[in-house]
Amino acid sequence: MTAGLAVALPDEAATRALGAALATALAPGDVIHLVGELGAGKTTLARGLVQALVPGARVRSPTYTLVEPYSTPAFDVLHLDLYRLAAPDELEALGIRERVGEAVIVAEWPERAAGALPEADLRIELRHASNGREARLLARGPRAAALLHALAGSVPQA
Fold first, then answer.
1. Are strands 104-108 and 122-129 parallel, antiparallel or unpaired?
2. Is 105 exposed, middle or buried (0-12, 13-18, 19+ CB in 10 A)?
3. What span, in angstroms and rounded, lies between the C-alpha atoms of 42 and 133?
4. Residue 147 belongs to what domain range?
5. Three-state DSSP class for 145?
6. For the chain, which residues score pLDDT lower than 70?
7. What is the pLDDT of residue 11?
């Protein structure tokens, strides 16, 4: 089952707000893939998500470290930036597989770890649009579809 939602993101604040809205419904084991070209807003969305869960957190792109962990009272969030991943098997050394099911995984550039990264429950495709950016959210499975349904009333649809 796949459900989708298109969201208008006219500015950086709207992108962060989408991340914050997503954060309210996350649960351990959720996997989110952020897809889009450089500058499409992947890190901005991840920043909004993490800062909604961990107020005051300094969220930077884990481009060089590949993963930045953040702890919440309920679960950990692993923010991955796989842009510099040379081969999918490098992901194994990061210990991500051991955390599947217990942490929320938010992965930028997931295509660089094809086959080594868990499939997305929610795939968010970000792209430049005539008036800012647009996000296309694609849910796989009933839990992620329920998340989209909840978001539909709280975010500006494209």
1. unpaired
2. buried
3. 11
4. 7-85+97-135+143-151
5. helix
6. 1-2, 62-65, 153-158
7. 93
Q: What is residue 145's predicted lDDT score, i.e. its pLDDT?
A: 83
Domain count, the chain: 1
Is the CB of residue 33 less than 8 Å from the CB of residue 113? no
Here the tokens at position 71 are: 């702890």
**pTM attached to this predicted model:** 0.88
Whole-number Cα distances in Å, 113 to 33, 53, 83, 96, 101: 11, 26, 9, 11, 18
State phi, psi for 88 to the nearest 5 degrees: -55, -30
Give the model's pLDDT for residue 62: 62
**Position 73 in a domain:** yes
Residue 158 lies in a domain: no
CATH of the domain at 38: 3.40.50.300
Kind plus residue range of the DSSP H or E element containing 152: helix 142-152
Distance between CA 130 and CA 105 in Å, rounded? 30
